[in-house]
Amino acid sequence: MADNVLTITLNPTVDKSCTVPQTVAEKKLRCSAPVYEPGGGGINVARGLTRLAIPADALFTSGGRTGVLLESLLEWEKVGIIPVPVSGETRENFIAADESNNQQFRFGMPGEEMSAAETQAIIQKLASLDPFPRWVVISGSLPPGMGHADFISVIEAVKTKNARLVVDTSGSALKAAVEEGVYLLKPNMGELSSLVGVEELDNASAEQAAKQLIDQGKAEAVAISMGAQGACLVTRDQSYYANAPAVKKRSTVGAGDSMVAGMLAKMAAGSGWQEVIHMGVACGTAATMNPGTALFNQKDAEKLYQWVSNAKAVRDTY
């Protein structure tokens, strides 16, 4: 039986998506009926885990009418919810796809400021969880008003429970996570190069950069997202590469979160690292096959997992 997973989303959203026949500046655009779905890094990870039959709870901030909608959307998807009330309105994002050329336009809103008291409420909620899950994912952006020290306090609240922490974020939040040390990091190539202070990385130097972080005690493992090339997972002793299958892409929204969900599904089930990165790439790729913010479906993910597992990678290890 797989371990339970907790995801933490500090800046959640309701994603509103639609299609238009063609985007033309200064013209009234006739949109399709909007589709509303839960969004934000950790929330998407929890949605993906639920589709893979892994028990997952989503802890997130929730405020205003959008927060109420977010909670109901997650309940409909049978994700366990742990909302933390905040005074600000939960944000909305907007995604529009142009049917004439299949281009996608993504409008991300910043969210409202979070107070120090609201950050403390998140920490208190974490402290109250009993039993505390073995696996915790912090994923997505930080809300305005949450500073470096606040984010570190959230990380410390998880680490004091001896949980295995997975972090997928960017910018100053990613650097804060590295300072504190986590179990698994999931940067892309650009984020990894920034972490180690180099201008650009290729496949070989990316492995060395990841090993540098591991040797410094910043992570037990690093999963590097390489977009259409797939991904590699680096541990202290070995590195694993997974090719990405070629599929017809309809949307890239949530592909990275789906990759994290796939990896966590195997990690929570006690699988080896090679199976972990194979499932991550399979789920991330499967998410691109669906429109808008729909993420992936289990059937596609399982089919692509078999393909990735059977495919001959460029090299199994670096």
Structure description:
It contains ten helices and 13 strands. With 318 residues, it is of the alpha/beta class. It has one domain: Ribokinase (UDP-N-acetylmuramoyl-L-alanine:D-glutamate ligase, 3-Layer(aba) Sandwich). Strands 5-4-1-8-9-10-11-12-13 form a nine-stranded mixed beta sheet, sandwiched between helices. The chain has a four-stranded mixed beta sheet with strand order 3-2-6-7. The chain starts with a strand and ends in an 8-residue tail after the last helix. The C terminus is likely disordered.
Question: How helical, in percent, are the residues?
Answer: 25-40%
Q: Over the alpha carbons, how many angstroms does the gyration radius reach?
A: 19 Å
Let me know the CATH homologous superfamily: Ribokinase
CATH class: Alpha Beta
Number of helices: 10
Mean pLDDT: 92
Order of helices and strands: EEEHEHEEEHEHEHEHHEEEHHH
Distance N to C terminus: 32 Å
Map the helices and strands.
Blueprint lengths: L4 E5 L3 E8 L14 E5 L1 H11 L4 E7 L1 H13 L3 E6 L5 E8 L4 E5 L8 H13 L6 E5 L8 H12 L4 E5 L2 H10 L1 E4 L3 H8 L6 H13 L3 E7 L5 E5 L3 E4 L12 H14 L4 H15 L10 H13 L8
Parallel strand pairs: 1-4, 1-8, 2-6, 4-5, 8-9, 9-10, 10-11
Antiparallel strand pairs: 2-3, 6-7, 11-12, 12-13
Helix pairs in contact: 1-8, 3-4, 4-5, 6-7, 8-9, 9-10
